[in-house]
């Protein structure tokens, strides 16, 4: 049997998998200044780094 390289119809009609797609919404977190979100993320990372316990993870 010879292959011609043609794809089956099911493969060409598949939609690509898109993860972490931005959803436009107006939430309190979206209204925060970008620097505030960066500082909060940094504080959480430092907390988990220096308190590597269930209590530190509970803060997340």
Which class do the helix and strand fractions yield? mainly alpha
Largest sheet: none
Uncertain regions: pLDDT < 50 for 5+ in a row?
none
Give average pLDDT, whole number. Answer: 79
List the total number of helices: 4
Distance between the termini: 58 Å
How many E strands?
Answer: 0
Q: How would you sum up this structure, described in words?
A:
With 60 residues, this protein is mostly helical. The chain has a domain at 28-60. It has four helices and no strands.
What attributes does this structure have?
mainly alpha
Strand-helix topology:
Blueprint: H1 9-12, H2 28-31, H3 34-50, H4 54-59
Quick take:
The mean pLDDT is 79. The protein has helices at 9-12, 28-31, 34-50, 54-59. It has 4 helices and no strands.
